Amino acid sequence: MSTADPTLENALSSTYRLVRELGRGGMAVVYLAHDIKHDRNVALKVIRSDLTLPGAAARFAREIRLAAQLQHPHILPVFDSGEAYPERSEGSLSVLWYTMPFVAGETLRDRLEREKQLPVSDAIRIAREAAQALEYAHQHGVIHRDIKPENLLLTEDGSVLVADFGIARAIAGPSASTTQLTEVGVAMGTPAYMAPEQAMGEREVDARVDIYALGAVLYEMLSGSLPFTGLTAQAIIARSMTETPRSLSVTRPQVTARLQSTVEQAMARNPEDRFASAQSLVTALDQALDATRSGAAPTIAIGRTAGPPGSRNVQRLLLAAAVVIIALAGVFALRRARATTDSAIHLAVLPFENRGAADDAYFADGIADELRGKLARLANFRITARASSDQYRESSKPPKDIGRELGVTYLLTATVRWAKSGSGSSRVQVVPELVRAETGEIAWQQPFEANLTDIFQVQAQIASHVADALGAVLGAGDQRRLAEQPTSNLAAYDLYLRSNAVKSSGLTRVKDRIALLEQAVALDSNFARAWSSLSSNLSNQYENGASDTGVARRALAAAERAIGLNPELPDGYDALANYHYAVTRDAGQAEAQVLLGLKLAPNDPLLLATAAKIERQSGHFQDAVIHLQQARRINPQSTGTLNLLQTTLLWLRRYPEALAVSDTLLARRPGDLSYTQDKSMVYLGQGDFPSARALVNGLSPATPDSEVVAYFGYYWDMYWVLDDAQQRRVLQLTPASFDDDRAAWAAVLMQLYGLRGDSARARAYADTAYVENLRLAREAPEDAQRKVLTGLALAYLGRKAEAIAFGTAGTGLSPLSSDKINGPYYQHQLARIYLMVGEPEKALGQLEPLLKTPYYLSPGWLRLDPTFASLKGNPRYDRLVDSK
User: Fold this and answer.
1) CA distances from 105 to 22, 33, 101, 441 (A)
2) Lowest CB count within 10 Å: 137, 562, 647, 672, which one?
3) Angle 686-691-693 from CA coordinates, rounded to 5°
4) Which residues pair with 445 in a beta bridge?
5) How far apart are CA 393 and CA 428, in angstroms?
């Protein structure tokens, strides 16, 4: 039975049924309520009816506004909000309320009261997820200011949700309030977790108060007690300004020096000595977890050394003296000597030198890849990814320079000779060398020679010897993983290696890889790694033009086969995540699979990049940037990671950062069409047409002009950036220049003839584009892009009703609200359809939201794109292109 005020229940009865009170605080009451419309339980927070604190209603309204802006996996979101009008005496005020998900779980406080101390790994994970949420809030200009165990919710699966932005403060952007809701000198927060500057009521606090509070929470999770205690709030505050928390190693010997250092830095009294951002704290926690897992020695308290007082600390302490009535003339900065060693082994496996026939280079690369994968699965090894190591193929750089550039201590190189025999038997000789990067000295070397049939045993022996030479202690699980063989069929393995050697992009190359992998699994149906690679390539094929249900079914079956064969192999989960990303567009399913993969390989850069793609699709672009930056640190030379980061920054309209990444990409891959186009899009986003065109023109003659013009004519509909000579070259192309995709070829010519004013030819090619796209749409009825492109062709043909019907059907299959990557493009095309059929206001209705969401369109782009030239002079359009 509900314990709520009956008048409040009556006021909300049409939308919510109040079940029971969950809790109350100084400003609000939280009820378990049932959302009648959506048939779900929610937590309903309502301002207390007996509250007389000045500014309470304004503060509560601001809480709703700030919380509603924050959409992050580790922040409790807002479902709905409003005002209730209880039937009381005449002139009674309305009551503000908002709803949130009802979390089936507990608060961190509940768990601490039950367990006192948490397992070290759990404490780090909880702090890490909370820090990720805070980084997102800080990036959106919001400081929480009341981080404590009561405001960290733990879901049934253990995930963290940061809740209660009741005293949060907007620090930037349109949500920053000009109304002073707290008096200067009044501390808002919980004393045990408040940073010194917050405790003194300083008005201009920044995001580092949240970092301090989370450090205090982490201290409590590890030690089982608060960092500072006292009989009164004033006493707690005074101790936080004059004392250093007791060393964690006293109560938890398992706490490593790295973790002790992390907590100390988070809780530094001076904000300048704390982590500069919550993301920096996330990075430190990752390193601390690595040190914990690798068994680094616990921290040892050596002694305390006094240092000179900081002038800013003196000023704060004098202010604190007035608050807590403690006379203090100064404070000495206490420093603790501590170890800072990192026990992880940082190693790069460089490309192996092929000493056999030139055609066997792929085989040497395959052995290097296998060793890289085996060593990466050992707990205390940090292995540089292949994309970063491959740049040193045949490099003459000294080991010291390579080690410094890759951030590693050791390099593993080898020579490989595959001696083939006419009788069918083959011998393989591998001579590995483990080199100390700093000195160039050989730490270990041993030649191996065996029959080809024993190549997997040789790989396991080499990995085991490397681990032994570096002092790593291998458990039974490590030995088992080293001994694992990907397949028992050497011919299948050879086909798998050959598929990996097909490096070029484009659908033709994808098809080549698929053909090789299908042969591999036909020879060995238990080859899990080949199945996962096959699935990923099929999903790629589906996403980039061959979107038929047959390809989709094969991609799903291959991923499920890979996982069924080897549930401990992260590749299968990555493949299934890519399937849901590219085929079903189900971000929830994709996220679930990539998380399973990351549990097995938390530092796998490919999985991190997949996670970023999924986060972009669900609209969490800031989180995607964080994951991509993490992947970049692990795999600093990966052009794939950099390219995804560049496009994410472009869509966020963070143009200077996007340009910097573009320059790095093009420095590594000069003349690459994709990277060049991406950089040109950054220029266009800023309204800089001359720089964009100069970049395109600079590609020829280094790249055949037919490839340049076909690429820009098709991808992202950038045919209008080409100059007159390049456009005329496009009009000479045949379907062969578009991978024999007649729909793509006809659509490009349709649009280009339309741009050049030749309406007769535009209609002729529109008819071809319509017929081809309609055929493909019928083969894949759930393909949103095919429907939208069919609608665009119909618009060029002047068939208004049909064009709009196909366009709206396509956007309905993948709307902007649920697909933040493909949805914007489909809505963009619907805007073009409306414009072409004479509905400019409806076109603007589609365009306006695109400038408020991450996407490459911008006011600068719209001013340049001739597609929208007919809108000039329309007041709505003029406001749109003049917006910032």
Assistant:
1) 13, 16, 12, 55
2) 672
3) 110
4) 433
5) 21
Cα distance between residue 482 and residue 322, in whole Å: 65
Residue 615 contacts residue 624 (beta carbons within 8 Å): yes
For this structure, is 80 an active site residue?
A: no
Residues 172-231 pLDDT 10s? 433 333 333 333 333 445 788 989 888 876 666 889 999 999 999 999 999 988 998 776
Between CA 66 and CA 224 the distance in angstroms is: 32
Dist. CA 355–CA 361, nearest whole Å: 9
- Taking alpha carbons only, the member of 596, 588, 507 closest to residue 559 is 596
- Asked if 843 and 834 count as a contact pair (C-beta separation under 8 A), the reply is yes
H-only helix segments in 330-454: 361-376, 386-389, 399-406
Distance, in Å, from the CA atom of 259 to the CA atom of 83, rounded to the nearest integer, reads: 46
What is the residue whose two structure tokens read 């309209």? 653
195 close to 209: Cβ distance less than 8 angstroms? yes
Q: Could you give the CA distance from residue 443 to residue 459 in angstroms, rounded to a whole number?
A: 18
Tokens of 713: 């004519």
Which residue in 35, 80, 110, 146 is the catalytic one?
Answer: 146
Q: What residues in the chain have per-residue pLDDT under 50? A: 1, 51-55, 88-91, 166, 168, 170-188, 296-342
Bin 65: left if φ > 0, else alpha if -120 < ψ < 50, else beta. Answer: alpha
Non-local CB neighbours of 201 within 8 Å, separated by 6+ positions: 184, 185, 186, 187, 323
86: left (phi over 0), alpha (psi -120 to 50) or beta: beta
Amino acid type, 157: D
Two tokens, residue 462: 């080499």
Question: HSE on the CB side for 164, CA within 13 Å?
Answer: 21
pTM more than 0.85: no
